[in-house]
Amino acid sequence: MGRESSMKPPYQILAYLTSDRDRVISGGPLLLYSDDKEALKQMTVDIAKGMKADVVQMTNGDYLVIRL
Q: What is the pTM of this model?
């Protein structure tokens, strides 16, 4: 059987970082925008280190900071 709908996922999205204004949406996790891709990458690393979390780079160039 599949996972029950009442169960929490095995991860938590802590932050979403993007360089595309069109993908900026409101929601639960921290959302940060920067038009400088190098600054965006450095912010991602700093946030993940501070939160003791992992980073996932998506194929569209955005980053997710997640905790397992």
A: 0.81
Question: Which residue in 53, 51, 47, 21 sits closest to 34, CA to CA?
Answer: 21
Asked whether 46 and 40 are in contact (CB, 8 A), the reply is: no
DSSP 8: P
Distance spanning both ends of the chain, measured CA to CA = 23
The per-residue pLDDT for range 34-60, each reduced to its tens digit, is: 999 999 999 999 999 999 999 999 999
> Minimal CA–CA distance to 56: which of 7, 11, 4, 26?
11
d(CA 16, CA 6): 24
Cα–Cα distance, 14 to 24 (Å, whole number): 15
Confidence (pLDDT) at 5: 65
